[in-house]
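Tutorial, part two.
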Amino acid sequence: MNTRRLLAINIVFIILVIVAGFVGYYFYNQSTLYLSTDDAQVTGKQIVVAAPAAGKVANWTGSMGTSFQTGDKVGEVQVMSGTATNAIPIAMPQNGTIVQNNAVENEYAGPGTPLAYAYDLNNLYVTAMVKETNINQVKVGQSVDVYVDAYPGISIKGTVSAIGLATASTFSLLPTQSTTADYTKVTQVIPVKITLTGYEGIGLAPGMSATVRIHK
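Running the prediction step on this input gives:
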């Protein structure tokens, strides 16, 4: 093996060692300073606009994308009382924007029937599922970097505002408890609520997938 070839091999080896060192340092640094999970979703408080009584839906204005304030009239239910028809207003329970409209003009609706669903798009947050083995590293008030899949390259600032008091599976329709001896232990996840700041104008929508990086 000539000297030139040996020198080239040594240079390549040194470069690989340096790259491996940087990669190792990066992942060590990430695991030490941050706790990350991609099991996260943009969400908010769902608002149900329901029929206050049994009757025919009329004068409905709750089309998708329309915003209302608390108490605003979205429509009315026309109720027959003897020979007279009474109009009972359908009021918006809280500030919100209609994201799903199920109401059909002049269609009969029973009392409590959901006519539309809304969210306050100015108060969205992220729910992140953190493994129970890592939850002791999460504290209220920690800073969070949020990355939404729909908008790559954009980092949204957040703060841990609440940590769930039960695992996500506790309220599942298919509980993980077993009454036999063949139970398989599975690592559970606990929901962590992350409030967001400075996301206005980005176009976040409830249900969008996200990745979060919690600063330890």
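The helical segments are 3-33. In part three we will examine how such features are distributed along the chain.
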